[in-house]
Amino acid sequence: MYKHLIEVLKALRPKQWIKNIFVFAAIIYSGELFNLRFLRTILFVFILFCLISGGAYVVNDIIDINRDRMHPVKKNRPIASGKVSIFEGLITAVVLEIISLVIAFNINTLVGVVCLVYLTEVLVYSLYVKGEIILDSFFVAFGFVLRVIAGSVAIGKNLSPWLTTTVSLLALFLALSKRKNELLFKDASKIRGNLKFYSQGFLDQMISSTVASTIVVYSLYTFLSGHNKKLMLTIPFVIYGLYRYLYLLYDNEKGGAPEDTVTNDIPLVIDIMLWFVFTLVIIYKF
Fold it and tell me: Which residue windows are transmembrane per the record (predicted)?
């Protein structure tokens, strides 16, 4: 029984819950990180997105079960491997989504609406958009933006459109990098249908332009955000982080699982930590 519950938990992909830290963007950049009431609310929103995204991952794995069984890594997922049945997965997903939406609307109506939009967006992606070229990556990026918006409306703090655009570009970069890595697999188009429309050269161009745009937009944010102009001191960390990720993508053939790429590379982890510390020091004037 215990081992089976572990498999059900694995089906929720807890390793990917790190993506939900984007809900903290509003509280950090609004200068309210040490406001305990706001911090408690954001922690609830973080847990909420772990639940709602976990349920969505289960639904996605059920829809993709046949393709996942041909994937060298995804075939070991609980749904694809048969360790968790489709029925068990559906029940788990439905229960989690209901609980998530109840929590969301109890935080406030706007959080509930954003979560409902996120759930709808994920389902539309899994059912229809995943097989489309370019649009699939845009949907992934939009999911990150919704996380940021959820954190913003939860505490009633507006975010700079420059920062929101930076998040969307960064997420788009990660999604395109994942597509590039997936092209390396044998019979890639059987694993993900729309990969037959992508080419390495086309992805290279989109990745390059997205990286450049991310650097430019983030730089503009540091100049125009209204925070201390010293925030521009964080730009080198962003540039290094993007270039380091490119190195891992092109020279080490990583990037297929962004959560692993980001957390397992020591130089990248140190860079992110330094960026975070500099950001806090500058915004909160420690």
Answer: 20-36, 42-63, 84-104, 110-128, 133-153, 197-221, 233-250, 262-284
Structure tokens at 81: 């491997």
For residue 243, give the nearest of 218, 274, 207, 278 by alpha carbon: 207
Diameter of the chain by CA atoms?
56
What is the C-alpha to C-alpha distance for residues 206 and 173, in angstroms, rounded to an integer? Answer: 8
Distance CA 213, CA 220 (A): 11
pTM of the entire predicted model: 0.90
Which residue type, as a one-letter code, is found at position 34?
Answer: F
What does the pLDDT average to over 67-95? 85
| pLDDT at res. 257 | 80
> Per-residue confidence at 186, pLDDT binned at 50, 70, 90?
low
CATH fold for the domain made of 1-159:
Tetracycline Repressor; domain 2 (1.10.357)
156 pLDDT more than 80: yes
